[in-house]
Amino acid sequence: MIESWEEYRVINDALNRLVNNLETLPKVKKAIEHLIRAGGKRTRPLVVLLSAKLAGGKYEDVIDMAMAVELIHTASLAHDDIIDRGVVRRNVETLNVKYDPSLAMLVGDWLISKSVELTSRYGHEIVRNFARTGMVMSEGEILDVYSLTGDFSRDDYFRCIESKTASLFAFSARNAYKFVSGDSEGADRLFQYGLNLGIAYQLVDDLLEFLEIFEEKKSEFESMTLPVILEARVGFRNAVDEVLELIRKFTGMSKEALKTFPSCDAKEKLLQLVDYMTVNMIRNYVTKNREIISLLEAHNI
Fold first, then answer.
1. Which residues are CB-contacts of 184 (< 8 A; sequence separation ≥ 6)?
2. What cofactor is needed (predicted)?
3. Are the CB atoms for 141 and 83 separated by under 8 Å?
4. pTM value?
């Protein structure tokens, strides 16, 4: 669906130009080419472009912000694969396997620095918010890394996913809209859109991993997730049932945050993105599992 959108082409073209024009060490350029050209859904930069468009702006107003968001996300994946000893992501070898963990770590650092440079054109507030989002993402990853070493509660889980995943979606939506429009109230609604979208998306990701049908990512170590926490208390079926209900709740809250904005192409695509990242992902992975489909239908998913 999103692959046919103009915004998807815009961000991919911009990323390809960035890679082609890199002036850095050959090892670094080759590694970045591997990461960027492995593909990806580009959902975070899409949120940037669409939020700016919703505010009445143009893609070029925020294209560097969109690239910065994708680069810091890519860096977080490179670091995550080192921590998890991941071997496959997006159906290709992870950087730490194709090259080595040291290069993967340092290229991740390079991408973070480049992402900050890209945000510098937007002024102090955007740079500060971006830097704070990066710190929050790191805190979420720390919670995730140590989730198996102690008493990791439901509240800990939600704090973890809000930090490591949802915070970047929230930044993407809020700051793109605010930069273009200057409208703080509208920007706060976009923050809620992105935050709840990110939570719902991570719930879906963790549910699919729990069901052992997530084939695009393989690693040696896993973290504590909500389905695992719930299964220990209420059993497999009830755990899946509760997570599906939470996905429905957070997708609804994400869409509700856009309710007061006038109808337009950007709003429609932002709403479609919610389904693409949640309901559609689930259906794509479980179409052959009748038991899971019955659970989906019970929750109108």
1. 178
2. Mg(2+)
3. yes
4. 0.92
